[in-house]
Amino acid sequence: MSNNILRPEWHLPENRVTPERAYRNRRKFLRELGLANGGLLAASLAAEAAAAKKLYPAQRNIAFSPPDLKLTNERVFTTYNNFYEFSTDKEAVVDRVGKFVITPWPVKIHGLCEQPFTADADELAAEFGVEERVYRFRCVEAWGAVVPWTGFELRKLLEKVKPKAGAKFVKFVTANRPEQMPGIARLRGYPWPYTEGLRLDEAMHPLTMLVTGVYGKPLPKQNGAPIRLVVPWKYGYKSGKSLVEIELTDKQPKTLWETLSPEEYPFESNVDPAVPHPRWSQATERQVDTGDRIRTLPFNGYAAQVASLYKK
Ligand code: MTE
């Protein structure tokens, strides 16, 4: 298998992303229309939803999709979830997401950057253009999968907001809605919202994706709709689901898992078969659909692309 990633040949034009004020005005306008005429608002939102659907299935970028990777069964991957805001029982998450409202979904991009803005998740997907990539996915719990994600490089979004010189990290904040997420109340001691972070160079790496779809369709709620992060060389907990905020900062963000258990879930969290979790080995992983146990690769198989980020 080749791990070499060629620079993609495609180039999608990046249209202007809605500035925050325009975004707010448009939403306010839609809301006001809604008060006067519910039908028109519904029609407008339906048109947005239809436009979003047209993005899927997206064209696969073969430069980022090794042909020898066999996709994990879709039903298994989309019904076996870690999403503690809903349940700690992986197979129960899918049945508890019913009240979770994902439209509209403003995402705020701000902090140490020249041009902060807020845009809806589906607008981001449409503006930046989406493509499919087949990535390995490795959970810290020693299970793995091969997943066709649809999305765009986070780098495109960061370049748009123009990070300031002082920006060293990117913080990712996810939805915190106890009234829609029944798992939050059951884990009262957790430092919600689920927050994650990357160094700026990790966030700018071409493998790091903002994902809005999977298996050729919009993301299901249980997999982090409408927009999540995917960082394929790190344990899955770095890939925050249902993102509401992306902040450029000069300080290493305090993440939920690091706050709860820093020895078990450190900030960096690169997949490394040689470093066991304090309570289990990371040398192998169980494929979620077949149950096959395979050897875990350093950086989850992406060493050729990312090892240089960690040269001392
Ligand atoms: N994001 C949020 N908001 N809440 C979570 O509980 N779990 C993480 C990550 N992102 C989690 C999250 C963990 S531990 C993993 S392994 C992946 O999501 C699981 O993603 P999947 O359900 O799409 O396989």
Number of strands: 12
What helical percentage do the residues reach? 10-25%
For the biggest sheet, the summary is: 7 strands, mixed
Architecture per CATH nomenclature, i.e. the level-2 architecture of the largest domain = Alpha-Beta Complex
Catalogue the unreliable spans: 1-18, 29-38
**How large is the radius of gyration?**
19 Å
In terms of DSSP E residues, the strand content is: 15-25%
CATH superfamily of the largest domain: Oxidoreductase, molybdopterin-binding domain
Q: Characteristics of this structure?
A:
Sulfite Oxidase, Chain A, domain 2; globular; 312 residues; binds ligand MTE; 10 helices; 7-stranded mixed beta sheet; alpha+beta; 2 domains; disordered N terminus
Describe the structure in your own words:
This protein has 2 domains: 17-54, no CATH class; 58-310, Oxidoreductase, molybdopterin-binding domain (Sulfite Oxidase, Chain A, domain 2). Strand 3 and strand 4 form a beta hairpin. The chain is 24% helix and 21% strand. The chain has 312 residues and is an alpha+beta fold. The protein binds ligand MTE. The site of ligand MTE has 16 residues, from loops.
Summarize the structure.
The chain has 312 residues and is α+β, with helices and mostly antiparallel strands.
